[in-house]
Amino acid sequence: MNKVVERKNLLAFVLVTCCFALWGFANDITNPMVKAFSKIFRMSVTDGALVQLAFYGGYFCMALPAALFVRKYSYKAGLLMGLGLYAVGALMFIPAKATGNYYPFLIAYFVLTCGLSFLETTANPYILSLGDKETATRRLNLAQAFNPIGSLAGMFVAMQFIQAKLNPLSTEERALLTEDQFEAVKSADLAVLSRPYVIIGAVLVAFFVVILLLVKTQNKVEENGYDQKFGPTVKRLWQNKSYRFGVVAQFFYVGVQIMCWTFIIQYGTRVFMGEGMTEQAAEVLSQRYNIVAMAIFCVSRFICTFLLKYISPSKLLTYLGIAGAALVLGVIFLDGRVGMYCLVAVSACMSLMFPTIYGIALTDTGDDAKLGAAGLIMAILGGSVLPPLQARIIDGVGIGSIASVNVSFILPLICFIVIVLYGHFVTKLNKK
Fold it and tell me: What are phi and psi of 402, to 5 degrees?
């Protein structure tokens, strides 16, 4: 049996896998910030969700330029560019805080995620290339298994060093403050929110130096018999049904992931305030549930990576998609903590999906994978487009006895249905 990672590629694999944890940290320290910014600036959930629009919009805008950059130069150059932009965006929280305005933070998030787009566009196909084709999907799942470790760290920092340290005044109490009182509270809260981003910016500068010194620069992209002109490459990718549907499935997967992890705070806050908790206590407890969800996601990723030895990726994707859809139905129709438990359990189903969709979609694309990776990273736009739509539903009214936040999970349900259809499609395709 071929090794998942050969000894000669081990150092590169370890260092690139660290990048998976770094962007996981950014993703999941940011999800709770929708609620935090809404409170700090006294905004609606819809306005707060602009954080996700800026965050995942950076992924979309930079994915294709990143792929072209990597094709022209090297994987190492792509990693360095990604780390550099990530660091700059994180350090931009310093001037953003000084302005005291919301929109400079959105600009900082956008720059930061331009860096994440470079990292993901580079690291995913790089990991696939570090060994035998037959073990590529398992290798990517193994590397991706360290992404939720970074996510757990991000959630922990968000809970312990941001949410728990923000001024405990509720949204309603902040609305009653005078302008001077509001500005004082806002300034203190923005200082609390910005500090972890500045620290991660400094860490990124150090890791940039490590990558610069220890990762070898590969030769430029090898042709391997492929015409690497842009037009013919795009045409070949478009004609690949598995790839084309894979981009669509990835759009909906990232959407469902971000919706479930972002709005668990709103869902849990409603549940726990209904039990008599204050708003801040309910938010902190909801974030603890979010951390449990991420821990389940992390453990499930390793379990699913093991199961891939015995079950084909497309079949396992289909089974988990069906389970995810069933759990979301529980989130919608089962109120109270039972619905919250269903929402936490959804993470077990999502753990396999991103790297598996990614690996399936790029199967048999050869060196076109360098550009094909861009389409799959651009599909992360789902995390930008779908959460604001869900936020609009949350800001609206419920249906009968079902609260608006419960109703909003109809969007994640639709996402899981699309993923199930993709898994079934690839399974049938492989039988031909």
Answer: -90, 120
> How many structural domains are present in the chain?
1
Quote the CA–CA distance of 300 and 345 in Å, as a whole number: 10
How much is the average pLDDT of 236-245? 89
Of the listed ranges 101-110, 127-136, 148-157, 269-278, the one predicted with least confidence: 127-136
What torsion do the CA atoms of 113, 118, 122, 124 make, to the nearest 10 degrees?
20
The confidence band for 317, taking pLDDT boundaries of 50, 70 and 90, is very high
**What pLDDT score does 364 carry?**
77
Angle between helices 241-262 and 50-72 (to 10 degrees): 140
Contacts of residue 396, Cβ cutoff 8 Å, sequence gap at least 6:
404
Rg (CA), the chain: 21
C-alpha angle with apex 191: 189 to 194, nearest 5 degrees?
Answer: 110
In the predicted structure, residue 51 carries a pLDDT above the cut 50:
yes
Give the tens place of pLDDT for each residue, 151-208: 889 988 988 899 889 988 877 888 888 999 999 999 999 999 999 999 999 999 999 9
Instruction: Check residues 95 and 381 and name the one with the higher pLDDT.
Output: 95
Both tokens assigned to 108: 């900082």
- Does 349 map to a domain? yes
Domain interval for residue 400: 7-219+229-431
| Residue 2 counted as domain residue | no
- The residue among 251, 218, 220, 211 whose CA lies nearest residue 69 is 220
Q: Two tokens at 419?
A: 């993923």
pTM of the model: 0.77
Rounded distance between C-alpha atoms, residue 418 and residue 294, angstroms: 23
Confidence of residue 91 (pLDDT cuts 50, 70, 90): very high
C-alpha 282, offset from chain centre: 24
CA distances to 26, 63, 428 from 117, rounded to whole Å, are: 12, 5, 32
**Nearest by Cα to 151 from 49, 20, 285:** 20
For residues 59 and 184, the answer to whether their CB atoms sit within 8 Å is: no
Between the alpha carbon of residue 33 and those of residues 27, 48, 50, the distances in Å are 10, 8, 10
Residue 82 lies in a domain: yes
